[in-house]
Amino acid sequence: MKRATLRDIIDMLRDTYCDHVGIEYMHIQDPTQKQWIRDNVEKTHLKLALSPEERIETFRKLARAERS
């Protein structure tokens, strides 16, 4: 999106970061990895890109990774 109203930007960020699936990545030390997450999450809008089944599977993978 090249141009957007402030309302559209706020809505996009809310959809990306404040929905049922959250992403915690600020603890990652590698700046390249951190930037990749930032770029891909904001670009793809997980809410729109993933089906409910894919979102559940993503959550399960994240939960398994946290336990490792």
Would you count the extended β strands for me? Answer: 0
* Shape annotation: globular
Helix/strand structural class: mainly alpha
Measured by DSSP, the beta-strand proportion falls in under 5%
Mean pLDDT: 76
Order of helices and strands: HHHH
Low-confidence stretches: none
Topology, pairings included?
Layout: H1 6-17, H2 31-44, H3 46-49, H4 52-67
How would you describe the overall organization of this protein?
This protein has 68 residues and is mainly alpha-helical. The protein has 4 helices and no strands. It has helices spanning 6-17, 31-44, 46-49, 52-67. The mean pLDDT is 76.
Tags for this model:
0% strand; globular; 4 helices; mainly alpha; 68 residues
Short description:
68% of the residues lie in helices and 0% in strands.
